[in-house]
Amino acid sequence: MECACFKADFQKAFDNVSWPFLRRILQWLGFSDKWWAWLEQCVCNAEIAVLVNDTPTSWFKARKGLRQGLRQGEPLSPHLFLLAVDCLARLTATAKSNNLLHGIGPSNDC
């Protein structure tokens, strides 16, 4: 009986989405530079306030800054993350079909 097990750990996955990779995906899908600029304004330069003891702070810019990936809680983040994961799955399948990626097999030492 053949069996395979795979676990994907998506903990902090949003934080690890590459912005250049995401931009290339959107360009490949036909999104214009203008759409990308709108997306950056929504995701990277949004203004937010934080509740501290049920009292909101002053509004401030929520910039990408040193963060690499998508922001948790941002309504667009799950959709953008799915685009990145789907593209990664397609790239993996293409690499496999072109014999650029090989699976692992069981050890003969067992």
Automatic annotation (TrEMBL):
<dbReference type="Pfam" id="PF00078">
    <property type="entry name" value="RVT_1"/>
</dbReference>
<feature type="domain" description="Reverse transcriptase">
    <location>
        <begin position="3"/>
        <end position="96"/>
    </location>
</feature>
<dbReference type="InterPro" id="IPR000477">
    <property type="entry name" value="RT_dom"/>
</dbReference>
<dbReference type="InterPro" id="IPR043502">
    <property type="entry name" value="DNA/RNA_pol_sf"/>
</dbReference>
<protein>
    <recommendedName>
        <fullName>Reverse transcriptase domain-containing protein</fullName>
    </recommendedName>
</protein>
